[in-house]
Structure formats: C-alpha cells, structure tokens
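Dear H.,

Thanks for agreeing to be a second pair of eyes. The structure we're designing against is below in token form, covering all 255 positions.
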C-alpha cells in the first residue's frame, strides 16, 4: 500500500478559542502515527484574533502551514484550499471549533489499507442544542432522500481520505453543501468507505455559522444546484473494489 504519510488540516473561522489546542494536538497525534506529516490551517477571513494566534503558533511550529483567505469565502473554498495544498498520501480534516477530538484520528488511521479510500466518522451522539439537532436530522433525512447516498453521517466533518482519491473528483460548492457534494461524488466513483463512530462535544467557544435563516436559505438553494449539476455529470466507470461495509476491518477497530 502507499506510504501512510499524513496531512492534517483545519478550517478556521473565528476559532480563536480552540484553534491553538487543535494544532498542538495535531502535532502530538501525527508524531505518534508517522514521521512524514504536515499540519495546515486555512483561515477563512477570521474577524477575531485567530490570525494572531496562528502567527504565534508558527513561531513554535516552524513547519506549520498557514493559508490566509483575505476575506470569508465559505466552507467549500476552505476545503478546496486544504485539499489542494496537501502533499501527503492521506488527508485528514476536521473543523477548528473543537467539537471533535483530534486524538480519535488514531482510530481512523489504523483502519487504512490498500483498498480503503475513505475512513469516515459518524457522530455517536450529537451534542448540540435541541434546535440544531432537529435541523441536522431533517437535513440528513432530506438529503438522503434526494441524493440516495449511503454514508451514515454526511455532516460529520471528521474524515481521512486518500489524496489520490480526492484528486478524482472536482468540488464546486462554496457553502457547507460541499460536504454533501464530497461524499456523493466519492460514492459515485465507488470509493471504498469504512465508517466508524466518533465523539461529538458541545461547542465551548464561538457560535455556529450554519444555523441562521440566511445560511439555511443558501443551503436549500445550493442543494438543488448540486442536484442538477450532478445530473449533468458523466457517469463514472471505476470498478468497485470491495464492499463498503467490510466486517473484517470493522472488527479490528482500536479502542
């Protein structure tokens, strides 16, 4: 199998309260897994002191890669920046708000073998206010109905993806719908998935950029844009390598 070199990247937008601890954790985790790794943070036009914190971290970790968007471009542009700047064979990303534990990357990483393209986390229990849980469940139900994807949790941004596989798809969405686009397009090329449960924690700093009327309206619009764009894409002909649900791998998940 390809050498398991590793890129870890974090989208960051007004995450000054959490991004430092995530970067420190990322270096700690990566060093325990491989000698060949990089850590990247993409700041999407933060208006708090996130950039000052990142500049300070750069003084400690001189190989930390920082990408600064001059203005807020949206989650889709952040993911594209992360994927395009990654140089290692496997790419892991999670959000900069600290709602996932970076140390659980170890469990995803140990599931890799030559046949696996994506190790996808799904939330054991969503620790959010009730209205966000309800909106999230509705979003998953409706998008599954429309797009017929197989992933348990398309909205769980805790993913480890083979870089050669991500190069096979072209992401176009600018909003949070990019996660739906990512999973659906990976499924369309018959990428081999393993899905494992991960913990989700209450947000301790800042607030979600997703759950407001303007953003939800944009999401609804972009869902339909994505749907019609996918209808016009050519069929993919990659032969499926194995069943996405591989019991022999799932039974070997580390604690």
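And this is the sequence the design step returned. I haven't edited it by hand at all.
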């Amino acid at each position: 199998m390809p050498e398991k070199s590793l890129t870890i990247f974090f989208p960051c937008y007004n995450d000054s309260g959490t991004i430092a601890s995530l970067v420190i954790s990322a270096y700690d985790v990566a060093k325990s897994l491989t000698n060949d790794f990089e850590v990247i943070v993409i700041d999407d036009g933060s208006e708090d002191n996130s950039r000052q914190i990142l500049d300070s971290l750069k003084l400690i970790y001189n190989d930390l890669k920082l990408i600064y968007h001059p203005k807020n471009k949206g989650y889709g542009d952040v993911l594209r920046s992360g994927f395009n700047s990654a140089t290692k064979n496997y790419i892991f990303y999670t959000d900069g708000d600290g709602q996932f534990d970076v140390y659980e990357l170890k469990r995803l990483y140990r599931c890799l073998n030559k046949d696996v393209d994506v190790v996808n986390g799904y939330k054991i229990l969503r620790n959010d206010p009730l209205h966000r849980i309800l909106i999230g469940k509705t979003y998953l139900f409706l998008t599954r109905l429309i797009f017929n994807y197989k992933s348990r949790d398309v909205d769980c941004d805790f993913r480890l993806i083979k870089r050669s596989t991500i190069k096979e798809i072209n992401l176009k969405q600018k909003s949070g719908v990019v996660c739906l686009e990512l999973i659906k397009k990976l499924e369309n090329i018959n990428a081999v998935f393993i899905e494992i449960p991960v913990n989700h924690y209450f947000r301790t700093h800042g607030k979600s950029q997703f759950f407001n009327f303007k953003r939800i309206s944009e999401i609804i619009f972009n869902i339909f844009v994505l749907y019609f764009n996918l209808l016009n894409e050519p069929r993919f002909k990659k032969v499926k390598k194995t069943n996405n649900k591989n019991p022999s791998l799932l039974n070997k998940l580390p604690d």
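Two observations from my side: The radius of gyration is 17 Å. The chain is about 40% helix and 15% strand.

Warmly,
E.
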